[in-house]
Specification:
This is NADH dehydrogenase [ubiquinone] 1 alpha subcomplex assembly factor 3. The chain has three helices and nine strands, in the order ββββββαβαβαβ. It is an alpha+beta fold. It has one domain: Hypothetical Protein Mth938, Chain: A, CATH 3.40.1230. The strands form two sheets. It has a five-stranded mixed β-sheet. Strands 1-2-3-4 form a four-stranded antiparallel β-sheet, with helices on one face.
Length: 137
């Protein structure tokens, strides 16, 4: 019997393949993410500068608070990508303005798009942080 695998592969950039610490999203499914080091995380995660933070994001997008935003900004990224799950959700204009006043670009998109976009941006060695909520959200 053949098992059905609902996970999705994500292409990674060739620019940093030789960097042993380079982390990007290799696969994702409805419950979590597998990174290029083959570590699997269940639930939401934050990736920044080859580090994984599994405590800097709530379970789903609707639970985000100013505390989360401040913790991300304290890491000093140039830009933040938020993968909001299966559906695209938007931040409020006030929250968008907060990031802009910090000099940080911010984009929300579906999780599948955020995985692909982050892999390209991180592969270009840009200073980006990605917040990923599982695709089920």
């Amino acid at each position: 019997m053949i098992e059905h695998d609902d996970s999705q592969n994500v292409g990674t950039s060739n620019l940093r393949k030789e960097d042993p610490g380079y982390l990007a999203i290799k696969r994702y499914d409805d419950s979590g993410f597998t990174l290029t080091d083959d570590a699997h995380y269940v639930g939401s995660i934050v990736l920044y500068k080859n580090d994984v933070y599994d405590t800097l994001a709530p379970t789903d997008f609707t639970q985000l608070t100013d505390k989360h935003f401040r913790s991300w900004c304290s890491l000093k990224p140039e830009m933040i990508l938020i993968g909001t799950g299966n559906k695209h959700h938007f931040l409020s204009p006030e929250h968008m303005a907060y990031f802009y006043t910090q000099g940080i670009g911010i984009e929300t998109m579906r999780t599948d798009s955020a995985c692909r976009t982050y892999s390209v941006i991180a592969g270009e060695m840009r200073n980006a942080l990605v917040v990923l909520f599982p695709a089920q959200g």
